[in-house]
Amino acid sequence: MSSGRSKNAISFILITIALDAIGFGFIIPVLPALLKELLGVNAAEAAPWAGILAFTYAAMNFTFSPLLGNLSDRFGRRPILLISLASLGIDYLVMGFAHSIWLLVLGRVLSGISGATQATAKAYIADITDLAERTRAFGLVGAAFGLGFILGPALGGLLGDISPRAPFFASAGLAFTNVLYGWRVLPESLAAENRRPFQLSRANPLGTFARLAKLPTVRWLLLSVLLFHFAHVVYPATWSFHGDARYGWDPRHIGFSLMAVGIGFTIVQGGLIGPIVRRLGTGRTAALGVLCNVAAFVGFALASQEWMIYAWIVAASLGAVGGPAVNSLMSMRVPDNAQGELQGAISSVQALSNMTAPLVMTQIFSHFAAREFYGAAFVLAAVLTLLSLVPLGLGLRSSPSP
Q1: Contact yes or no for 196/74 (Cβ under 8 A)
Q2: Tens-place pLDDT, residues 342-359
Q3: Helix extents (H) in 319-400
Q4: Which fold, 212-402?
Q5: Does the pTM of the predicted model rise above 0.85?
Q6: Burial code of 360-382, b = ≥16 C-beta within 10 A, e = fewer?
């Protein structure tokens, strides 16, 4: 592949990843208003349906990510990426025109399937980069997702002032535009001789769990990740409904508050985590991240005025050092030939959290919000995060400290 075509292809992949994050972020600020419109209920009563929608999306994503990855090994990356993007655009139109909650559920089914393209996108990058370039290219993927999640809620909040349906139509337009761009600039990256027959047994999303027994030195750390990630789903699951019910936030306020969270996390993970690790070490950095998150969750739960939310976002942002530090601890404890297996295990644990946590968090929020205690889901998140210190400590003692 020529240098020019390679650059265009990488640009398309990065735009696709960013659009995934923007599309997800677009929806969060307007979801309370849309659900209240469709169901004729208040924010607290609408929240459980948001949990169902989040579960639906995550379950489809979990199920179809390995399937689409394996299909791309058989038929090539280009058709899978372009078809998925086009179907994502159709899905956004379905949700934009939805006149019933069941059409919205159908939309999340389609978006979960269509959005399960990150594995294919990363495989494309692996196809067109050499080992020296690959790490930087994967870093750009992470940066594109982070940028998309910063822009998505802010733009979604602004468009939500026009209509709670406007962000869906904007997302559809972006998806279709990217299909046209990809059709023009995206060459196929997988040579015919490197393709393999499709095997359903290799597209099993539960296969990683069967391999966890092979990683005994990181079992405790994986449990810590499960608790930590489960707690953090409180943000996409309840943040919008919490702001609506407790402070009367409109989509614009919700979007900008989420943008502040995204900016804080990006600054800490992009610039501060290195100096913190050098000063404290990886294990203490992980513990610091856990404790900062506990403080932030308690702060969000008790914040009686909306300005307090922004003060606690600072603590939550500093807590963003926790996740990467724990991942690094696990990576240090497995051999080089098991790194892919480890990342698959982490992804499976996070996917399990993404499916189950929204149901739990939205139910907790709805139950206690009806009794005018709006911070209950954040209390649960604080407890789970604090509990994650136990397996973290056991995992640190299971092998020499880094």
Answers
A1: yes
A2: 655 676 677 788 889 999
A3: 322-332, 339-369, 376-387, 389-397
A4: Growth Hormone; Chain: A; (1.20.1250)
A5: no
A6: bbbebbbebbeeeebbbbbbbbb
